[in-house]
Amino acid sequence: MRRYRVILALTALAAALIVPLVAGQFWMTLITQIYIYGLLALSVDLLLGHAGLYSLCQASFFAVAAYTTAILEVRYGYPTLVAAPAGLVAGTLLAVLYGCAVRTRGVYFILITIALGYIIWGAVYRWASFTGGDNGITNVPPPSVAGVSIASQTTYYYFVLGVVILCAFGYRILIRSPFGLSLRGIKGSESRMQSLGYRTTMHLYAAFVISGAIASLAGVLYVYYNRFINPVAASFQISVEVSLMAIVGGSGTIVGPFIGAGIFLGLRNWVSSFFEMHTAVMGIVFIATVLWAPSGIAGFIGRWRGDGAKTKDRP
Amino acid sequence: MSIATLHRRFICAAGASLLATALVTASAFAQQTGPIKIGLLVPLTGPLATPGIDMVDGFKLFWEQAGNTAGGRKVEYVIADTTCNPDQAITQARRLVHQEKVHIMIGPLCGHEGPAVAQVSKETGIPLVMDTAGADSVTKWDRTPTVVRTAVSASQIGHPFGDYLYKELGARNVTFIGQDYTWGHEVTLGIVQTYKELGGKVAKIIWNPIGTKDYGPTVASIAPDSDAVVAIVVGADRIRLFESWFGFGMDKKFKIYGGYWMHQDALPQMDDRAIGMIGNSLHYAAGLDTPANKAFVDAFANKYKRLPSWFSESAYTASLWTRTAIEAIKGNVEDKDAFLKAMRGATVNAPRGTLKMDAYDNPIQNVYVTRIQKINHPAIGSVLTNVPIKTYENVSQFWTWNPEEFLKRGPYKR
What we know:
- The complex is a heterodimer.
- Chain A has 15 helices and two strands.
- Chain A is mainly α.
- Chain B folds into two domains: 36-152 and 292-302 and 324-362, 3-Layer(aba) Sandwich (Rossmann fold), CATH 3.40.50; 155-282 and 367-396, Rossmann fold (3-Layer(aba) Sandwich).
- In chain B, the strands form three sheets. Chain B has a six-stranded mixed beta sheet with strand order 2-3-1-4-5-6, sandwiched between helices.
- The radius of gyration of chain B is 24 Å and the shape is globular.
């Protein structure tokens, strides 16, 4: 079974590597977008699939990172080497601040993260003199490091792919570590973990900040991909959509969020080109997922291969 | 026959045959290059789907009338659903350019999608004929060489109404009900600017986010000493304000004028109480009494059994303008610079009037202040519509100010 997984992973990698050669430019940019949103969905899933926290302010870290990078690049002319890390730091710092939400649980946690998310949305929407308001910030230059500019979309595709693979490996190490195990322990029974002597709130806080950092990374990748940022990126809608991506794709897995992002963005951007009622198709996909693949597409594939029980508790 | 005559004849014949060859080659060349592809970016789902469909209908009507040809070439079009989301608009614009290989993009509708699609035009060089998206910045502070606008920039329709409000309606102390987003800010503050310059006093500006469910608190908080109320509302808010206004009996206390309110697409959901009210200050009104507009309205009404909104006229005129430019360059849309130059130089006789581009890529056009009336249209029957009562001719996006001065003042911000 292990060998099977390695072969599968290598095939997927090979497929990802040849995308720019075989697919048209549109598909390549769409797949770049899928990687970026997949990464954002992955950050949601660290909380949702492992720690059992339903966070609905993920778009805030994403947007704050993207806005910071865009503003530094466009308004102040800072190079990528300053703007991109600054975006990452700004998004992560926001997660450090917003992390206090983990003092609550369940529905209260959902409510407080919605409220926190709206603060950022309101700020970028309202503070028009600084953020450009509704019009957003345009003309973000392509990333360039030491005079080498990643202007071509093909190069950027490989760059994003590289970052995503590195993140996936890091994420795998994280969730297989004792820390990841304790997160799943908290999801299973927080009181039992507490009675075993774990400081569960601190664990959840750490998970929240790491999740915010991944979301910030996705935000930085996003702003260089679209060369444009708008308050919609900080909206409640994005937070919900990325959660749905994680759930549909397969919560608690690594590939799941990426599959979910693929389904979501693929349906919206490709099906809409020939079928006007594409939102209805999306609805049917959600219903089908809930009915027949409650652990998402990744879980469904796992079950079909006969190791469903294992996929459930193994990342 | 003298030698000289023979020579002349020979030269004439040679010239004629050369010309003929050139013409044949030119037409063959045009055929070889295949159809012209135009991409239309509009929301077909989401909150602004209705105006989006209005645009599609106006667009289709034009190309049907034009026989789907321009500059001797066939025209094909692709319609992409932007869902009124800039992220989606960007991806769809890239799809049109990279996948569908369009020569020209027309659209989008939502204000905030405008800069997003302009970004794609900038990175790919594909000309964008900016349609109803009205962000002021696109033709003022944030211009893109490959983007021209054929509809309107937000404050362009606001400035004349401020003038009208003070001079003709005699308002001196006004409460404004504005929609709280970029387009709403720019229209509202455009009105406020000209009105205040004349000496008018602003009693209050009440801002409502798009999609405000209840207009009760808004109408209740109108400054009691105001002598007029001006409404700038979009989407479903237009109907909600209308209902609250009469529901709370405000019509007996205040006079209300629509700066941007009772559009043709919202009128079917209003009723006869609207008759006689000032509905809009806009660059188009379905009730405009000109031959060009009558022909357009009749064709539209016969085909779709309703009157065209400004969104329909906008997509129609964007197509007309595009076709005029394509004709001027004889169908060679592959030459993007020539196309953009032709767009900028064209004079277009649109349903809404004669249009020319200013030096900042925004049309100079009439703005009509309209009153709601019930008319009888042979194809539809009795119907409410906007009838112009005052025309401001050839209004520039800079109103009467000098462009440099306007640009230095900066965008209208809340």
